[in-house]
């Protein structure tokens, strides 16, 4: 009575078409891995775009606790603990972060690629400069950010001052 091979084939074809349409819709709206992560580090990039440094403001909740946490990210440069002249030829480009606090003359070198953390700064205003550097510690032109941080006294420090005044 019923042609089961026709019905099964028709159902399978509809399922394949539906899956293809769903996949196409999802892939059209989603970012690709390259969009999010950048180019693969396994293939050299001819004529690399300039390195960029993007820096967020310090995290306010941490400032209130007496800690400075500054998040950053890079474009067109991978932060890695790779140093020396030979690394200048690596593609995609590698480097690290230098940062300076209050006009210090020497950089703090960071190759972790993680949030910059500073503890122990006295309360008050501070200048912070972050810059990308190549594998032989030369600053990369155009990849530097200057900013100010105001480290407020912690609640414990405020309480200590209040208690010290009442004792005197």
Features:
single chain, 168 residues, alpha+beta, Immunoglobulin-like, 2 domains, five-stranded mixed beta sheet, two-stranded antiparallel ribbon, 4 helices, 9 strands, 29% helix, 31% strand, flat, disordered C terminus
How are the elements arranged and paired?
Layout lengths: L3 H26 L3 H5 L14 E4 L4 H4 L3 E4 L1 E4 L2 E2 L14 E8 L6 E3 L5 E4 L4 E10 L5 E13 L3 H13 L1
Parallel strand pairs: 4-5
Antiparallel strand pairs: 1-3, 2-7, 5-6, 5-8, 8-9
Gist of the model:
The chain contains four helices and nine strands; from the N terminus they run ααβαββββββββα. With 168 residues, it is of the alpha+beta class. The protein has two domains: 27 residues; 103 residues, Immunoglobulin-like (Sandwich).
CATH topology of the largest domain: Immunoglobulin-like
Distance between the termini: 104 Å
Instruction: Characterize the largest beta sheet: strand count, sense, and whether it forms a barrel.
Output: 5 strands, mixed
CATH architecture of the largest domain: Sandwich
Uncertain ranges: 163-168
SSE order, as H and E? HHEHEEEEEEEEH
Question: Can you tell me the overall shape?
Answer: flat
Instruction: Please tell me the overall pLDDT.
Output: 83
Using the coordinates above, name the CATH class of the largest domain: Mainly Beta
Beta-strand content estimate: 25-35%
Structural class: alpha+beta
Question: What is the strand tally?
Answer: 9
User: How many domains make up the coordinates?
Assistant: 2
Q: Which value, in Å, is the CA radius of gyration?
A: 27 Å
Helix content: 25-40%
User: Total number of helical segments?
Assistant: 4
What oligomeric state do these chains adopt?
Answer: single chain
């Amino acid at each position: 009575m019923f042609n089961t091979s026709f019905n099964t084939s028709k159902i399978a074809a509809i399922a394949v078409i539906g899956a293809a349409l769903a996949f196409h819709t999802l892939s059209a709206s989603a970012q690709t891995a390259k969009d999010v992560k950048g180019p693969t580090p396994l293939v050299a990039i001819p004529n690399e775009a300039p390195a960029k440094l993007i820096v967020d403001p310090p995290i306010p909740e941490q400032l209130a606790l007496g800690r400075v946490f500054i998040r950053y990210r890079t474009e067109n440069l991978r932060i890695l603990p790779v140093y020396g002249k030979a690394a200048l030829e690596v593609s995609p480009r590698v480097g690290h972060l230098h940062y300076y606090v209050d006009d210090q003359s020497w950089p703090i070198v960071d190759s972790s690629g993680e949030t910059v953390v500073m503890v122990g700064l006295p309360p008050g205003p501070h200048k912070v400069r972050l810059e990308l550097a190549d594998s032989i510690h030369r600053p990369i032109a155009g990849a530097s950010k200057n900013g100010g941080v105001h480290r407020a006294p912690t609640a414990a420090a405020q309480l200590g001052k209040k208690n010290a005044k009442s004792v005197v």
